[in-house]
Design brief:
6-stranded mixed sheet; 4 helices; 10 strands; about 20% helix
Length: about 170
């Protein structure tokens, strides 16, 4: 049985179930040094900040307010829906008891309009506002103040194109 020198015993801590004979043989062949060097590189790589590891755009929906209209473009660079299409999100701050009309119009594709609550769950959705159009429309009474997400997507995986999104705050008429 071979004995490890004091300076080489620290390698044994990393491989406690391997016999000292095997470790001594591996050390002379340089295998353990290579394993430890590779481990150090892997540890070093795992400590790289995510900002260096990912060079993608961060998901940040565009803010839209009541009474405004946004002209935009839906492309294959937007959020994949998992249904062969793409979606674009907008953030809306809404107050309890507001009544909203949300419309999206496009001559380029069949629109789908979704409204998501603060938990990300779909609470309203519309494909075609009427039987003779492919534009979408949602009427909604806000039950809880908060941040809502308006999602514009294409029906049936169509490619997208130009669209206009409008949010209107409705008044109650007595």
């Amino acid at each position: 049985m071979k004995y490890l020198s004091r300076s080489d015993r620290h390698y044994f801590r990393y491989f406690p179930r391997i016999s000292t004979t095997l470790i001594a043989g591996l050390m002379t062949s340089g295998v353990i040094s290579a394993i430890i060097n590779v481990s150090a590189i892997a540890i070093g790589l795992s400590s790289v900040p995510e900002s260096f590891a990912q060079i993608r755009n961060v998901y940040k929906p565009t803010a839209i307010s009541s009474g405004s209209e946004i002209n935009d473009l839906l492309t294959d660079k937007d959020i994949p829906t998992g249904q062969k299409g793409f979606a674009r999100d907008y953030i809306l701050e809404a107050q309890k008891d507001e009544r909203l009309e949300i419309t999206v119009n496009s001559g380029s594709f069949d629109t789908v309009l979704s409204l998501l609550d603060t938990k990300g769950e779909v609470i309203a959705e519309n494909d075609d506002a009427a039987s003779d159009t492919t534009n979408s429309l949602i009427f909604f009474k806000v039950r809880q103040s908060g941040t809502y997400t308006i999602r514009v997507s294409s029906f049936g995986g169509s490619s997208g194109g130009k669209f206009a999104l409008k949010v209107t705050k409705l008044r109650v008429v007595n």
